[in-house]
Amino acid sequence: MPNRCGWAKSPLEIQYHDEEWGVPKYDDRSLFEYLVLEGAQAGLSWVTILKKRETYREVFAGFDPVRVANFDKRTVETILRNEGVVRNRLKVKSAVNNARMILRVKHEFDSFSEYIWQFVKGVPIQSSFCSMSELPAKTSESIQMSKDLAKRGFKFVGPTICYAFMQAVGMVNDHLVDCFRYNRV
Fold first, then answer.
1. Residue 67 belongs to a domain
2. Is 13 tagged catalytic?
3. Is 46 a catalytic residue?
């Protein structure tokens, strides 16, 4: 049995931890997916979001920012009736809003990836934490990212959400040093 980070307990969390968490992602669609999911997770457990992930992919058009940016009020209402998503109006509307903001950012930076990775100078930060209690909820980078995203009109992008996003998309390697994924990521 490999040694894992302590938060990966359920089979779904273990699979996510072992295959995705902390692996650098540069594709705009993937980055948009994680931004939406991290925002949806606020106040909930990550395993709840993992259980709903496939439905999110369906209702949010495979996380295609162009398609989601064109969602109208009727589409939002349809999503809010779907029990397979977190039925929080502000969170659903923020996903549509954030798709529109991503399209604006792409005009300025060529890609959302180019923009978002600037907060770590294009290179993942390598942490060296030995216990879960050492992991921060936010960092100076996530605070800076949060402020810039908010200034550009993004929603549900507080410093803690931004840090969780950074961990998920591999902008920071927060696998514990004794986790079997630490050196692989």
1. yes
2. no
3. yes
